[in-house]
Structure to design on (386 residues):
């Protein structure tokens, strides 16, 4: 079965929704204008319940099916990124320094399309809970909503999400059992030494040289402390220090992103990072202040959820366009918090050629919205048949 015909009929309407959201990007938890737009559409569709202000600006809607059954949650993220847009499109962002560069406008459109279809047809048992979440990019909106009792309040039994992927075959779905996306942690280390004249280094304790040594030493953790079949990334992404070519600075700092899948490797990485930095500081006779911030946990799919959502994907795209054994990715996603509370799965949808995610020239492919909406709709009908 291809794209659901009724949802295909919504294509132009869905394009209008998506492009309005693209022009009005919002950040973090403060997605109030987007939430109001979503609520207006849900009221037009005739959903049974609308709950606003969950997770500051999150929206949860309920659609009742036919008869007794389970409750399935479907999630879309609404927030944009703090970056300028360079697409030149007529519907480009109207807000300087903000753009939908990750396709969350498309994700929200997919879920709205599914909502309209499900509210109209109601060919499922039990209930569907539609979750429109702010602050995926920064702020952990999924955790905020879960901490406010999302799963228990609405009796959600299982939960699913989807993300678009540019430069992957249009309409292709992929996922994997177990860890699908990595946990993400952030290291910031401030090195304090003693500055002085660049001509007299013997009178200083150079924090810049120490920072360079630390950056190199951190790379040995992956090569020498991790089992070769485990996965860990430590990328030093910033080194700052100094103000002039003939001045040795008093301080410098480095920053790194740390990605892992298993809790054991995550714990080991933090422990070894602290030990390496402290050891390097002692070797260079400087002091180091370590700020190690744990971010999103690994996004871990449940085998049952992958199998169930895989059936929906096959219905929409055909078996040849569905890969349920994709390799995990080192990106991170706060949908992880929802999967920690309920079984389910996170799927990816190829949207064809285009600029990559978080690129100022990125734009969601509107033709993919009915595909994603059909996936959500079929998932509900398969999971909770009448």
């Amino acid at each position: 079965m291809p794209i659901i015909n009724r949802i295909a009929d919504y294509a132009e309407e869905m394009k209008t929704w998506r492009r309005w959201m693209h022009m009005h990007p919002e950040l973090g938890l403060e997605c109030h204008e987007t939430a109001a737009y979503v609520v207006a559409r849900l009221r037009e569709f005739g959903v049974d319940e609308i709950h606003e202000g969950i997770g500051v600006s999150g929206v949860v809607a309920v659609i009742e099916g036919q008869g007794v059954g389970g409750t399935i949650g479907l999630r879309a993220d609404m927030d944009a990124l703090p970056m300028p847009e360079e697409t030149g499109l007529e519907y480009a962002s109207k807000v300087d320094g903000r753009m939908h560069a990750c396709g969350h406008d498309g994700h929200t459109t997919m879920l709205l399309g599914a909502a309209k279809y499900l509210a109209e047809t109601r060919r499922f048992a039990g209930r569907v809970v539609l979750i429109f979440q702010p602050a995926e990019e920064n702020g952990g909106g999924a955790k905020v909503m879960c901490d406010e009792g999302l799963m228990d309040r609405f009796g959600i039994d299982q939960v699913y999400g989807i993300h678009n992927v540019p430069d992957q075959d249009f309409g292709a779905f992929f996922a994997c059992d177990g860890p699908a996306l990595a946990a993400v942690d952030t290291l910031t280390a401030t090195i304090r030494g003693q500055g002085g004249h660049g001509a007299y280094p013997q009178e200083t304790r150079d924090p810049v040289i120490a920072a360079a040594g630390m950056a190199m030493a951190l790379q040995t953790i992956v090569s020498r402390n991790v089992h070769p079949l485990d996965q860990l990334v430590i990328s030093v992404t910033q080194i700052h220090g100094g103000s002039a070519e003939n001045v040795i600075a008093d301080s410098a700092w480095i920053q790194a992103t740390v990605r892992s899948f298993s809790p054991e490797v995550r714990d080991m990485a933090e422990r070894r990072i602290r030990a390496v930095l402290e050891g390097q500081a002692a070797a260079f006779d400087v002091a180091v202040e370590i700020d190690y911030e744990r971010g999103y946990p690994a996004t871990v799919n449940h085998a049952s959820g992958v199998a169930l959502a895989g059936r929906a994907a096959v219905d929409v795209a055909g078996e040849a366009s569905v890969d349920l054994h994709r390799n995990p990715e080192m990106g991170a996603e706060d949908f992880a918090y929802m999967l920690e509370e309920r079984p389910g799965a996170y799927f990816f949808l190829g949207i064809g050629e285009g600029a990559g995610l978080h690129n100022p020239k990125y734009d969601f492919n509107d033709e993919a919205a009915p595909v994603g909406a059909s996936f959500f709709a079929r998932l509900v009908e398969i999971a909770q048949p009448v």
Notes: The mean pLDDT is 97. The longest strand covers residues 183-192.
